[in-house]
What we know:
The protein is mainly α. It has helices at 4-18, 23-33, 40-49, 55-68, 73-82, 87-96, 101-113, 121-133, 138-144.
Amino acid sequence: MSNPRKNIRLKAMDFLARREYSRCELQKKLQQKFPGNEDIASVLDELIVDGLQSDSRFTDSFLRLRVNAGYGPQYIRAELRQRGVTEDIVEEAFSDLSVDWFDVAQQLFSKKFSDQDMSDAKLRAKCLRYFQYKGFTFDHIRGLL
């Protein structure tokens, strides 16, 4: 006879072996795999105690990934909230992060718009919308334009 608690833990460790997950994400994945099982929350608590799952570690990894992909702070914060990371952990990760958001925006601008004439109002509006979508603040965008 199989032990459902053990199966939940093994599946969670299998997920975590591939990449970091927030507790909320991992809980959703496990609930899909083991619907109606009440042991999921206690297994997740054990994984946290054992150091196998950490929202802080997930946030740090996710932040670096998104910054390298050219996303701004507002977009990243919203994504982390959607993934169930608490505001305290998000704030701590952002305060520990040494990123020059103007530099990130400038690199993205150079890659996307460097060869275009920014005196055209339609192009400037397109550029503004693009950087808003990417999660940059108006200060960052104004610095570019």
